[in-house]
Write a structure and sequence with these properties.
single chain; 230 residues; alpha/beta; Rossmann fold; Arc Repressor Mutant, subunit A; five-stranded parallel β-sheet; 8 helices
Protein backbone atom coordinates (compact mmCIF):
# COMPACT_ATOMS: atom_id res chain seq x y z
CA UNK A 1 0.00 0.00 0.00
CA UNK A 2 1.33 3.44 -0.94
CA UNK A 3 2.05 6.15 1.60
CA UNK A 4 -0.83 8.31 0.39
CA UNK A 5 -3.25 5.37 0.64
CA UNK A 6 -2.16 4.66 4.24
CA UNK A 7 -2.63 8.31 5.23
CA UNK A 8 -5.93 8.84 3.42
CA UNK A 9 -8.14 7.42 6.16
CA UNK A 10 -6.42 9.15 9.09
CA UNK A 11 -7.49 12.19 11.12
CA UNK A 12 -4.76 14.55 12.34
CA UNK A 13 -4.95 17.26 14.99
CA UNK A 14 -2.26 19.97 14.84
CA UNK A 15 -1.95 22.14 17.95
CA UNK A 16 0.27 25.14 17.16
CA UNK A 17 0.03 28.72 18.43
CA UNK A 18 2.09 30.08 15.54
CA UNK A 19 -0.73 30.62 13.05
CA UNK A 20 1.56 31.02 10.05
CA UNK A 21 3.37 27.75 10.73
CA UNK A 22 0.10 25.94 11.33
CA UNK A 23 -1.32 27.09 8.01
CA UNK A 24 1.93 26.26 6.17
CA UNK A 25 1.92 22.74 7.55
CA UNK A 26 -1.74 22.27 6.65
CA UNK A 27 -1.03 23.48 3.12
CA UNK A 28 2.02 21.20 2.82
CA UNK A 29 0.56 17.93 4.14
CA UNK A 30 -3.10 18.45 5.06
CA UNK A 31 -4.54 17.09 1.81
CA UNK A 32 -3.08 13.64 2.49
CA UNK A 33 -5.55 13.08 5.34
CA UNK A 34 -9.30 12.65 5.56
CA UNK A 35 -9.30 15.36 8.24
CA UNK A 36 -6.66 17.87 9.34
CA UNK A 37 -7.77 20.04 12.27
CA UNK A 38 -5.86 23.03 13.70
CA UNK A 39 -6.05 24.26 17.31
CA UNK A 40 -4.06 27.24 18.63
CA UNK A 41 -3.41 26.38 22.28
CA UNK A 42 -3.42 23.38 24.57
CA UNK A 43 -6.90 23.90 26.01
CA UNK A 44 -8.37 24.35 22.55
CA UNK A 45 -6.37 21.32 21.44
CA UNK A 46 -7.75 19.09 24.21
CA UNK A 47 -11.28 20.15 23.36
CA UNK A 48 -10.64 19.40 19.67
CA UNK A 49 -9.16 16.01 20.61
CA UNK A 50 -12.32 15.08 22.52
CA UNK A 51 -14.59 16.24 19.71
CA UNK A 52 -12.66 14.99 16.66
CA UNK A 53 -10.99 11.84 18.08
CA UNK A 54 -7.93 12.15 15.80
CA UNK A 55 -5.66 9.22 15.00
CA UNK A 56 -2.51 11.37 15.43
CA UNK A 57 -1.82 14.54 17.44
CA UNK A 58 1.01 16.92 16.48
CA UNK A 59 1.61 19.66 19.04
CA UNK A 60 4.03 22.49 19.72
CA UNK A 61 5.75 22.17 23.08
CA UNK A 62 5.58 25.85 24.15
CA UNK A 63 2.07 27.31 24.10
CA UNK A 64 -0.11 29.55 26.26
CA UNK A 65 -2.74 28.17 28.66
CA UNK A 66 -1.49 24.56 28.42
CA UNK A 67 1.84 23.48 26.97
CA UNK A 68 2.43 20.52 24.68
CA UNK A 69 3.60 18.15 27.39
CA UNK A 70 0.57 18.89 29.57
CA UNK A 71 -1.64 18.34 26.53
CA UNK A 72 0.14 15.07 25.71
CA UNK A 73 -0.32 13.85 29.29
CA UNK A 74 -4.04 14.71 29.20
CA UNK A 75 -4.50 12.93 25.86
CA UNK A 76 -2.62 9.85 27.04
CA UNK A 77 -4.75 9.68 30.19
CA UNK A 78 -7.88 9.55 28.02
CA UNK A 79 -6.54 7.42 25.17
CA UNK A 80 -3.10 5.88 25.72
CA UNK A 81 -3.01 4.53 22.16
CA UNK A 82 -3.07 7.96 20.48
CA UNK A 83 0.39 8.81 19.05
CA UNK A 84 1.58 12.31 20.02
CA UNK A 85 4.33 14.10 18.08
CA UNK A 86 6.04 17.16 19.58
CA UNK A 87 7.27 20.20 17.64
CA UNK A 88 10.00 22.06 19.50
CA UNK A 89 12.30 25.03 19.11
CA UNK A 90 15.97 24.25 19.72
CA UNK A 91 15.80 26.29 22.94
CA UNK A 92 13.13 23.91 24.29
CA UNK A 93 15.43 20.87 24.24
CA UNK A 94 15.50 20.58 28.03
CA UNK A 95 11.72 20.35 28.07
CA UNK A 96 11.88 17.36 25.76
CA UNK A 97 13.30 15.29 28.59
CA UNK A 98 9.76 15.18 29.95
CA UNK A 99 8.39 13.91 26.65
CA UNK A 100 9.45 10.34 27.40
CA UNK A 101 7.46 10.35 30.63
CA UNK A 102 4.20 11.19 28.87
CA UNK A 103 4.68 8.74 26.01
CA UNK A 104 5.49 11.08 23.12
CA UNK A 105 6.43 8.95 20.11
CA UNK A 106 8.59 11.49 18.21
CA UNK A 107 9.78 15.08 18.24
CA UNK A 108 10.91 17.47 15.52
CA UNK A 109 13.14 20.48 16.11
CA UNK A 110 12.06 23.67 14.32
CA UNK A 111 12.69 24.50 11.57
CA UNK A 112 12.09 21.12 9.98
CA UNK A 113 11.24 19.86 6.50
CA UNK A 114 7.53 18.98 6.17
CA UNK A 115 8.60 16.08 3.94
CA UNK A 116 10.53 14.64 6.88
CA UNK A 117 7.40 14.84 9.01
CA UNK A 118 5.32 13.30 6.23
CA UNK A 119 7.77 10.42 5.88
CA UNK A 120 7.48 9.67 9.59
CA UNK A 121 3.68 9.91 9.43
CA UNK A 122 3.68 7.29 6.65
CA UNK A 123 5.58 4.85 8.88
CA UNK A 124 3.34 5.69 11.82
CA UNK A 125 0.21 5.13 9.70
CA UNK A 126 1.37 1.61 8.89
CA UNK A 127 1.69 0.84 12.61
CA UNK A 128 -1.70 2.42 13.38
CA UNK A 129 -3.41 0.32 10.72
CA UNK A 130 -1.72 -2.85 11.97
CA UNK A 131 -2.74 -2.22 15.58
CA UNK A 132 -6.19 -0.73 14.98
CA UNK A 133 -8.27 -3.94 15.18
CA UNK A 134 -8.86 -4.95 18.80
CA UNK A 135 -10.25 -8.42 19.49
CA UNK A 136 -13.22 -8.36 21.83
CA UNK A 137 -15.35 -11.29 22.95
CA UNK A 138 -15.69 -13.69 20.00
CA UNK A 139 -16.77 -12.99 17.30
CA UNK A 140 -16.44 -9.21 17.79
CA UNK A 141 -13.62 -6.82 16.89
CA UNK A 142 -13.37 -3.05 17.28
CA UNK A 143 -11.46 -0.90 14.80
CA UNK A 144 -9.87 1.99 16.67
CA UNK A 145 -9.06 3.89 13.48
CA UNK A 146 -12.55 3.89 11.99
CA UNK A 147 -14.30 3.65 15.41
CA UNK A 148 -16.48 0.79 14.18
CA UNK A 149 -17.60 -2.54 15.61
CA UNK A 150 -17.42 -5.73 13.54
CA UNK A 151 -19.03 -9.15 14.06
CA UNK A 152 -17.43 -11.97 12.09
CA UNK A 153 -15.86 -9.27 9.91
CA UNK A 154 -19.23 -7.65 9.14
CA UNK A 155 -19.90 -4.07 10.22
CA UNK A 156 -22.33 -3.65 13.12
CA UNK A 157 -24.28 -0.46 12.43
CA UNK A 158 -23.97 1.67 15.56
CA UNK A 159 -24.71 5.35 16.03
CA UNK A 160 -21.77 7.67 16.68
CA UNK A 161 -22.57 7.78 20.40
CA UNK A 162 -22.99 4.00 20.61
CA UNK A 163 -19.63 3.41 18.94
CA UNK A 164 -17.99 5.98 21.19
CA UNK A 165 -19.43 4.16 24.20
CA UNK A 166 -17.58 0.97 23.21
CA UNK A 167 -14.41 2.98 22.61
CA UNK A 168 -14.71 4.58 26.05
CA UNK A 169 -15.08 1.15 27.67
CA UNK A 170 -12.16 -0.20 25.68
CA UNK A 171 -9.84 2.58 26.87
CA UNK A 172 -10.99 2.57 30.50
CA UNK A 173 -9.14 0.69 33.27
CA UNK A 174 -10.31 -2.95 33.28
CA UNK A 175 -12.68 -1.96 30.43
CA UNK A 176 -15.21 -0.76 33.03
CA UNK A 177 -17.16 2.50 33.42
CA UNK A 178 -19.56 3.51 36.17
CA UNK A 179 -23.03 4.74 35.26
CA UNK A 180 -22.09 8.32 36.12
CA UNK A 181 -18.86 8.13 34.08
CA UNK A 182 -20.82 6.93 31.05
CA UNK A 183 -23.30 9.79 31.37
CA UNK A 184 -20.50 12.33 31.70
CA UNK A 185 -18.52 10.95 28.75
CA UNK A 186 -21.41 10.54 26.30
CA UNK A 187 -23.75 13.38 27.28
CA UNK A 188 -21.35 16.08 28.42
CA UNK A 189 -23.21 18.90 30.16
CA UNK A 190 -26.60 17.16 29.91
CA UNK A 191 -28.80 15.79 32.67
CA UNK A 192 -29.29 12.10 31.86
CA UNK A 193 -31.71 9.88 33.80
CA UNK A 194 -30.96 6.28 34.73
CA UNK A 195 -33.85 5.19 32.51
CA UNK A 196 -32.36 6.96 29.51
CA UNK A 197 -28.98 5.31 30.17
CA UNK A 198 -30.56 1.86 30.49
CA UNK A 199 -32.47 2.36 27.23
CA UNK A 200 -29.26 3.40 25.50
CA UNK A 201 -27.35 0.34 26.79
CA UNK A 202 -30.22 -1.97 25.85
CA UNK A 203 -30.09 -0.67 22.28
CA UNK A 204 -26.33 -1.25 22.04
CA UNK A 205 -26.71 -4.80 23.37
CA UNK A 206 -29.53 -5.54 20.94
CA UNK A 207 -27.33 -4.47 18.04
CA UNK A 208 -24.33 -6.44 19.29
CA UNK A 209 -24.73 -9.04 22.05
CA UNK A 210 -25.76 -9.02 25.70
CA UNK A 211 -22.56 -10.87 26.67
CA UNK A 212 -20.38 -8.20 25.02
CA UNK A 213 -21.58 -5.43 27.36
CA UNK A 214 -21.79 -6.87 30.86
CA UNK A 215 -23.94 -5.19 33.50
CA UNK A 216 -22.34 -4.70 36.92
CA UNK A 217 -25.56 -4.44 38.92
CA UNK A 218 -26.28 -0.92 40.14
CA UNK A 219 -22.73 0.23 39.34
CA UNK A 220 -21.86 0.32 35.66
CA UNK A 221 -20.85 -1.72 32.64
CA UNK A 222 -17.90 -3.84 31.53
CA UNK A 223 -16.71 -4.62 28.00
CA UNK A 224 -15.82 -8.28 27.40
CA UNK A 225 -12.52 -8.56 25.53
CA UNK A 226 -10.44 -11.45 24.22
CA UNK A 227 -8.41 -13.08 26.99
CA UNK A 228 -5.06 -12.17 25.44
CA UNK A 229 -6.00 -8.45 25.70
CA UNK A 230 -6.91 -8.61 29.40
Amino acid sequence: MSCSARLAGLKVLLVEDETTLAELLKEAIGDYFVEFTIAHNGIEGLEAFRQRRPDIVITDITMPKMDGLELAAAIKSENPATPVIILSAYSDKQKLLGAIDVGVVKYFIKPFDPEELLDYLCRLAERIKRDSRIKLLEPFEYDLQSEQLFKNGVLVHLSKRESRFIAQLLHSPNHYLSNEAIKSALWEGEEVSDDRLRTFIKRVRQKSDKSLIENISGQGYHLAVAKERE
